[in-house]
Amino acid sequence: TVTKRWYVDSCLPQVFETVSEWRQKTGLRGLILHDDNARPHRVGIVNKFLAENRIEPYRNPPYSPDLRPCDFVLFAKLKNQLRGIRFDDDNAMLNALEQAIGSLTKDDFKNCFDDWFIRMHKCIDADGQYFEKLH
């Protein structure tokens, strides 16, 4: 379960550490965080934590699930790879999930972000209003 405490104490610090390692010269400077509008991501403690780390949150328009790469790419790919598999326990499931995530290629991520930009422009064209069809 994602809670505000877990998000601030575990998730975001790990993300920021990894980003800082990848961006050795700039670290977190200029980073814009794009997550969703889930309640644990929008509470005061999270906003304070982001401000303390000088991270700009990118605010999704309301009712825009079509803008979250995890929703339109990652979850679908993982679901397809793991469909029909029965797991003996949580560890077996986590191992299979890690392998599925590890099998994603640079092209998968490039295509994901190419699609994300198309979706963002569609949202801009719709003045932030909800839309159902991409094309």
TrEMBL record:
GO MF term (any one): nucleic acid binding
InterPro entries tied to this protein: RNaseH_sf, Transposase-MT_Hybrid
Protein name: Transposase
Species the sequence originates in: Didymodactylos carnosus
Upper lineage: Eukaryota, Metazoa, Spiralia, Gnathifera, Rotifera
